[in-house]
Structure formats: structure tokens, C-alpha cells
Specification:
By secondary structure, the chain is an alpha/beta fold. A 6-stranded mixed β-sheet has the order 3-6-9-12-14-15. A hairpin with a 4-residue loop joins strand 14 and strand 15. The longest helix is centred in the middle third of the chain and has 17 residues. The protein starts with 18 loop residues before the first helix and ends in a 16-residue tail after the last strand.
Amino acid sequence: MSGARGLPALAETACPAAVPWLRMRAEAERSAAREPLLRPLLEATVLRHRSLGPALAQLLAPPLAGQGLAAAALHGLFDEVLAAAPELVAHAWRDLHAALERDPATDELVDPFLNHKGFQALQAHRIAHRLWVDGRHALARRLQSRVSQVWAVDIHPAARIGAGLFIDHATGVVIGETCVIGEDVSMLQDVTLGGTGKESGDRHPKIGAGVLLCAGAKVLGNVRIGAGARVGAGSVVLRDVPEHATAVGVPARLVERARAAGHRLGDTCGAPA
């Protein structure tokens, strides 16, 4: 998948000198030349690194440090996890690509990498999820707590999230423990993928590939949102939504079937309730 604003879908694992990393370094060099005040940040997070994995470890450790978690220890942990699970780096490239493709305000890779808290919170979650899968639950939950405190994004470390997720603005996003999110999903701020409070066990939503969840959308319970579906702003979904359908309102009702599988932010987020 690529486009005029995008980049080839290259995984770092397949090509260590991949075009996306070279592109992001070039963007960082241009930014540093234009804004000398930013050069120390760009040097620390991009320019001194040879690939995305070590850059991510450097980017995420300092803001998550504190309250008993040392920055150096977190940096070492993140380096270790990313080196042992290169698919997490490939997912990060897909997540950056998603921001570039779907956000009209984004035209450089280095921008979401440095400035989008949705991207940063998601990468921290991917590391926490790896720790959770490895049985390191206490540490994974502590990282979840720090991510929530720092970026106001609360994703349970057990939640399973596919590649290419774009979380725009991100403040107030909540994703529950048994939630499963497919590939190439987009969501805006204040989205909740939660339980109803009346269930136990597998109690959270299952979101299909290519779904768009607009600002303030609430999907509650073990319901399924079909691939390519859209949920309008402020809607509350309590029942399954078919593939390529649009659901709006409180409680949500179906209003149309989407003709195209792809989407850009704002396509249906203003749909009337």
C-alpha cells in the first residue's frame, strides 16, 4: 500500500536500510537545519540511530520514566524487547505510514514519530503487550499506568492490536483487556472500546480491519464491528455492526453501507445522529 503522500510498505526486518528510515532521517536533518532549537532532540531521537528500533527505545523511555521507573532501565528494556521482537518495529512503520496516509495534517514521517502521542502511546502498548504475553504482567501493567498518566491513553496490555492503527489526537482513548483490533483501523480522541459492566471473561469489542471510529464513539461489550465499517462521532454501539456499514446515534443505528473500503479522517465523522 502506498500513495502520493505515502511510502513503500517496507518492513525494517526485510530491509535494514529501508527507504522509510532514510526518509525520516532526511526529514530530521531538514528540521534541524530550519530550527536549531530542535537539533538536540532530533539528534537524540533520530539522527544518532541506525534504525527505527533503537530510535523508538530512546523516544519512549524518558517520558515514561519516573515514579520508580528509571529512564536508563526503561531504555535498556525497550531496546531488548524491540530487538527480540522485530515484528514490533515493522508494526511501528505501518503505524507511521497510517498517519501519513490518513491524516491530512501530516506530510512527514518525523512529525508523528516525535509529536503524535497516539503513535507514542501505541508503541509503548506494543512493548507492554509483549511483556504481558511473556508473563511479565506486573511490569506490563505498570507501563500501562505510566502511559495513561503521561499521554491520557489507557490500553490494557492484554489487548491485541493489528498493524497500521492510527489514533488521531488520542486524549481519552480507552481500550479494554479482551479487545481485538484488526489492521488499518483509525480512531479519534475519546473513543472507548470497553465493557458494559455486566460481563466477565471475553467482554470487549472486536474491531475489524479498516474500521473508522470517530471522536467520542463508544463500543461496549463483546460486539463485532465488521471490516470497513464506520462509527459516527459520539455514537454508542451496543450491537454488532456489519461490514462496510455506518452506525450513528445513541444507541447507534445503521444508516448506510460504505461503498469504499478505504477512508480518510472526516469521511463520516460528521454524520448526523
